Amino acid sequence: MIETIVHTEADYTYTLLRIVEGVIIFPYGMQKLFGWFEDFGGGVGIRETLSTMKSKNIPVTLGWLVILSQSIGSILLIAGCLGRLAAGANIIIFLGAVSFHISEGWTMNWTGRKKGEGIEYFVLLLSILLIVAIKGSGALSIDLWFSIEE
């Protein structure tokens, strides 16, 4: 089973997508875990993040899974280590984000006139994560190193 999870091809397209996705998700994870990057919203640090999620009726256990998936998952994506698992965990998170923001429409709040953000950003992130989940981490990854047969 682990062979199926780490198997990937030495394709730089998947490498680029995986690294970009990891870099995009990293600040959100670090903001929730350590309180870095305050302007990303949604609480700063573990205590505030869990408090914000509780106010939105998100269970504490699920809140912890979001914190860990975004913080550790982003690092795993950047390194290309267990990329499919990291992508899968973040797919679940961003599906939740889509369901939470769908009532706010498609577009983001570019003009500042809407009550919240739309789902276009999350759909883009989900699309990239889906490619990584299906195709693997690509070249320059720990997964590829494990995939090479001797």
Give a description of the structure.
- This protein has 150 residues and is an all-alpha fold.
- Helix content is 67%, strand content 0%.
- Helix 2 crosses helix 3, helix 2 packs antiparallel against helix 4 and helix 3 crosses helix 4.
- The chain starts with a helix and ends with a helix.
- The mean pLDDT is 91.
Q: Averaged pLDDT, please?
A: 91
Helix content: 55-70%
Shape: globular
Gyration radius, to the nearest Å? 16 Å
Q: How does the major sheet shape up?
A: none
Beta-strand residue fraction? under 5%
Protein name: DoxX family protein
Organism: Sphingobacterium thalpophilum
Features:
7 helices; DoxX family protein; mainly alpha; 150 residues
What is the element layout, followed by pairings?
Elements: H1 2-6, H2 12-34, H3 45-55, H4 60-79, H5 83-101, H6 120-135, H7 142-147
Helix pairs in contact: 2-3, 2-4, 2-6, 3-4, 4-5, 5-6
Give a brief description.
With 150 residues, the protein is an all-alpha fold.
